[in-house]
Amino acid sequence: MELTVTFWPEGAIPPWQGGAARPVAVFHDVTTDEQGLFRITDIPPSVLPPGKYDLRVNSRSTLATLSPGVTFPVPGNSNI
After folding, report:
1. Looking at residues 62-75, what average pLDDT do you find?
2. Please, which contacts does 35-38 make with residues 24 or more away whose CB atoms are closer than 8 Å?
3. Rounded to whole angstroms, what are the CA distances from 33 to 1, 3, 4, 10?
4. How far apart are CA 14 and CA 23, in angstroms?
5. Helix or strand (DSSP H, E) at 7
6. pTM here?
7. Cβ 27 vs Cβ 4: under 8 Å
8. What per-residue confidence (pLDDT) applies to 16?
9. DSSP letter at 16?
10. Is beta strand 65-72 parallel, antiparallel or unpaired with respect to 25-31?
């Protein structure tokens, strides 16, 4: 399955909720494995600085999922 993964500033109010926040980074065409897990690797700090983000994941055939307060990079791992 192909996903779009969007990193929003933690606590930001995105346009679909009536706010004007803009995403920090968007990754298109992220592919999942058989269990639905995915990794985004080799993200330079200039694209996505370390910190906490609200992570939105969606595909063309599913509803979006929002995970608030995700720490990037994941402690002990440079992948998510």
Report:
1. 85
2. 36/1, 38/3, 38/5
3. 8, 11, 15, 27
4. 8
5. strand 2-9
6. 0.81
7. yes
8. 80
9. G
10. unpaired
Q: Residue 69 has which token pair?
A: 């307060």
- Res. 50: pLDDT tops 60: yes
Secondary structure (DSSP) of 29-74:
EEEP-TTS--------TTTS-SEEEEEEEE-TTS--EEEEEEEESP
Count Cα neighbours of 77 within 13 Å in the Cβ-side half-sphere: 7
Q: Would you state the structure tokens that stand for residue 8, as one six-digit string? A: 């929003």
How many of the other CB atoms lie within 10 Å of CB of 44? 7
Q: How far apart are CA 40 and CA 19, in angstroms?
A: 27
What is the distance between the alpha carbons of residues 68 and 24, in angstroms, rounded to a whole number? Answer: 14
pLDDT tens digits for 32-45?
999 988 888 888 88
